[in-house]
Design goal:
Layout lengths: L14 E5 L11 H9 L2 E4 L2 H10 L6 E3 L5 H13 L3 E5 L12 H9 L4 E4 L4 H9 L5 E7 L4 H14 L5 E7 L4 H12 L4 E6 L7 E6 H9 L8 E5 L4 H12 L2 H11 L4 H12 L3 H12 L1
Parallel strand pairs: 1-4, 1-5, 2-3, 2-4, 6-7
Antiparallel strand pairs: 7-10, 8-9, 8-10
Helix pairs in contact: 3-4, 6-7, 7-8, 10-11, 11-12
The structure holds S-adenosylmethionine.
The site of S-adenosylmethionine has 23 residues, from α5, β7 and β10.
Length: 298
């Protein structure tokens, strides 16, 4: 018989285990993750109540301890001390991979610095799940976490990205909250132009999973027609080329009257809707856009 034991029988090596948990569908948890959660000494959780639901579902009884943004530094010290004694500790976040827009990276860095083995236990992740089913290129991508919540910072961030991304094969991935998605998309339209391709992946792996694919203007229109916008979401943008940048810049130097006329013709918008769109793209109010239009006529 070979000396390689069945993994189920192997005692778990001491160390830190970064365990992915489901992002919605409770079935999305690897067998290895379940074995690790059953075998560690304790589980450090972003929210112990949230993780307890998962543990209950799989009949796992294990001590849990909280490990979140606000106690990350202090708790890291404590966890590293236990790991240095030969402990086996799992880190989980509320959903997906710990360390990805979630706590986990700090304790991993501290464990590495302390010479403690760190084991990734891969599984669900919202960004990658959205990317592979988005229909956008997957050969190159960059993940940007949450967009800045403040409008000014968000606009500068997106404008800088629009200038620096240089090919269509590079997909940009963001996490966004439902109450901010409308304004985030408005800013994407400003920076990348209304015809830029985007995908909004909502409620992945859950009952109401949905992919909205189209231009920024189309996806915005779909969302605007809804009474409310709910659920967890990932926003993906196609990359852009320097030629796209020139086209957007050119659109911004056109007169309002020309932009309105182009939109009325190309997108079949009413004059009012076209003006509304131009105002949005320019980051100005509707009445300001109207006054500007009147000034241009003089
Ligand atoms: N660590 C997680 C991961 O690996 O994906 C991400 C945690 S981050 C705090 C939470 C954000 O991830 C949500 O606001 C949303 O943008 C995205 N997200 C998480 N679950 C999702 C789902 N089921 N569908 C779409 N987006 C999701």
């Amino acid at each position: 018989m070979s000396n390689s034991q069945h993994p189920e029988e192997k005692p778990l090596a001491p160390g830190l285990y970064l365990v992915a948990t489901p992002i919605g569908n409770l079935e999305d948890i690897p067998l290895r993750a379940l074995r690790v959660l059953r075998s560690v000494d304790r589980i450090a959780c972003e929210d112990t109540r949230q993780t307890q639901k998962l543990l209950n579902h799989y009949g796992i009884e294990k001590p849990t301890v909280s490990y979140h943004l606000h106690n990350e530094a202090a708790r890291t010290e404590e966890l590293i001390a236990a790991l240095q004694q030969g402990g086996r500790i799992a880190i989980v976040s509320d959903a997906g991979m710990p360390g990805i827009a979630d706590p986990g990276a700090l304790v991993a860095q501290a464990a590495i610095a302390a010479g403690v083995p760190v084991f990734p236990i891969p599984g669900a992740n919202a960004a990658l799940s959205a990317l592979v089913a988005s229909g956008l290129p997957t050969e190159q991508f960059s993940f940007h976490g949450f967009l800045p919540a403040r409008q000014g910072q968000r606009r500068s961030y997106l404008e800088a990205l629009a200038q620096t991304t240089t090919n269509h094969a590079h997909t940009l991935i963001f996490y966004e909250a439902p109450h901010r998605i409308a304004e985030a998309l408005a800013d994407v339209e400003l920076a990348f132009g209304p015809a830029h391709r985007v995908v909004l992946a909502r409620e992945l792996t859950k009952l109401h999973e949905e992919f909205l694919r189209g231009t920024v203007a189309e996806v915005r229109a779909v969302l605007e027609a809804r009474d409310n916008i709910r659920g967890e979401m990932v926003l993906l943008l196609e990359g852009r080329t320097p030629e796209d940048n020139t086209a957007t810049a050119a659109a911004h130097t056109q007169s309002i009257a020309t932009q309105v006329a182009v939109l009325m013709q190309q997108e079949n918008l009413s004059k009012k809707d076209a003006l509304k769109r131009v105002a949005r793209e320019r980051g100005i109010g509707k009445s300001e856009a109207y006054r500007e239009l009147q000034r241009e006529k003089r």
